[in-house]
Amino acid sequence: VKKSEKPSREVKTVCPYCGVGCGIYLGIRGNRIVSARGDPKNPVNNGRLCVKGRFALNFVNSIERLEKPLIKEDGEFKEVEWDEAISFIADKLSKYNGDEFAAIASAKCTNEENYLLQKFTRTVMKSNNIDHCARLCHAPSLVALKESLGSGAMTNSINELKKSACILAIGTNTTETHPVIAYKIIEAVKNGSKLIVVNPTRIELVRHADIYLRNKPGTDVPLILGMCKAILEEDLIDHEFIKERTEGFESFREYLSGLEWDEIELLTGISHDDIREAGILYASSPTASIIYAMGITQHVNGTDNVFALSNLALLTGNVGRVNTGINPLRGQNNVQGSSDMGALPDMYPGYQSIDNHREKFEKKWNCKLPTEKGIILPEIFENACKGKIKALYIMGENPILSEPDIKSVEEALKNIEFLIVQDIFPSETSKFADVILPACSFAEKDGTFTNTERRVQLIRSAIRPPGDAKPDWWIISKIAKKMGAAGFEFENPREIFNEIREVVPSYSGISYKRLESEGIQWPCRSEEDPGSTFLYKDGFTRENGRAKFILPSLKLFETPDKDYPFMLITGRSLYQYHTRTMTSKVRGLEKFKDWKFLEMNPVDGERLGVREGDFVLVKSRRGAVKAKVKFNEALMEGVAFMSFHFALVNCLTSSVRDPLSGMPALKVSCVDLIPQ
Ligand code: SF4
């Protein structure tokens, strides 16, 4: 490190990338981030960081940052002062009301900012049309775990994985997407834990696994039910737990009895013996944990996948105890918090339904609230295409790349009468905006993020924002006040957090003062409560206190046929992040791994007559994109992979949705590969 690049001070904060929520010390010189090191005292990462946390934070210093509010005039953006931008927005928004308005909150923004955007949408715009990107990642977890256990969150803690006797990693490429958690899993294996990996791709974690099941893409339900069936047949179920703490077991037992092993083998491509061996290992271990991610949720049967996993844990009593649990690994840094804060069309903050808690919130916010349930993220775009959503406020999101079937999203954005995009960089989405508002990055504001294990942590302002960029909470408050609304007189995020504590019971014992030293895991109900490392010790949070077995359907979405013979899986790379609004500004990251390829097994390459570096047209029922071929022996024959960092991959995916959670079929699509 050159002397001129050595930090002159350090600021303790939290990594802005994935849901692990690693503690970080930012090294600052002048007004620039020049280094980052892991916080050795943070219990989440104990000083460790992955490549993004260590080397990919200087996107904040990029000269491409938005610095002034911009208003579109005659097709061109012109710089304006904040007063003009706020008056312009207030004036425009006052013309829309209720169902004509929608807002998209952000898992990159703080709890305080998400809380304010949903409050603005509900109290000022009188609409419940608010949603965020969890719809595209863990909406099935929220729905399924809430229904089966009582709460849609990770039941246990990251560090418990180190002591779990058996870890089932299913639908997660943990080394790429949650690297610090992967490190803890590998550490656990070295210390004697057993590891079962279920994944269509021979991922890095397989090298450490005791059992690897390579199922066909999209066949997790039959595979998990097969494990349950084997456990039942071997009588390895936890009789006492089932009797004392659950309901619905008899129907589940009957359902399993009706499943034929032949069908399970045919659907999954895995033998009865291998599934049985995995079931026995999981059920006979004294403690067993399940971790999963988008490989489970991003399907039209994503909710069924999670129901199946929940049943597996309930069958063996592996929930409600330390070192066990069912643990959705959240993708973005604050996706848990955005959901906790009520950026959801049917729930107020703290998962309090709009049907049952309206009176409470009307009293607290001192206004009448809309009674109709709002619409979910994909419906916002569908309704915009139909002209029903006329004004849209997007905070820190780039839906034109992240949504499925992006052609229709583009059509929707063009159709919207008034579009506000608030972000730190211009994006593919902001081109369509009427107003672009420059926001602060994580390093330029205070607030809280809630990580994947429900840990609320403080982020701290380390440098001044560029130009006139402002924190999202400041911008929302200004617009609300300009529109004459009360309840937005906040001077700082601490004041907003204090209001959150008053309305969200599971956050009520958490204060900024307490967070100064260390993060706290919700539920935390009083100043004396240390928080909860794991859930459901004393009962499930469903109405009758019992967890419920729920019967998932075996139905598959798309299966290969003669026109679309390959299954395309989408996923992520360790070296990039989502739609790359941040990582594309970090020089050097692309040298580590090129993300623009279509990966396929070399046997498929030979069959198609293509070599590495050749181009193929990747064609699905929705659209087509060209991509360069790269061989990857880790993939099954007949299965191809593209990273969704690649700009156009969502031309190929389908917007057909999971009926229970609204999750589109982002993970697997059937495609044809045509050599060019
Ligand atoms: Fe950041 Fe996640 Fe890497 Fe930790 S594991 S440093 S939170 S990207």
UniProtKB/TrEMBL annotation:
Biological process terms in GO annotation: formate metabolic process; respiratory electron transport chain
Source organism of the structure: Methanothermobacter tenebrarum
Signal peptide from the UniProt entry: none
UniProt key word Iron: yes
GO cellular component: membrane
GO terms for MF: 2 iron, 2 sulfur cluster binding; 4 iron, 4 sulfur cluster binding; formate dehydrogenase (NAD+) activity; metal ion binding; molybdopterin cofactor binding; NADH dehydrogenase activity
Domain 4Fe-4S Mo/W bis-MGD-type: 8-64
Family that this chain belongs to: Belongs to the prokaryotic molybdopterin-containing oxidoreductase family.
The protein's name: Formate dehydrogenase subunit alpha
Alphabetized UniProt keyword annotations: 2Fe-2S, 4Fe-4S, Iron, Iron-sulfur, Metal-binding, Oxidoreductase, Repeat
Phylogenetic placement of the source organism: Archaea, Methanobacteriati, Methanobacteriota, Methanomada group, Methanobacteria
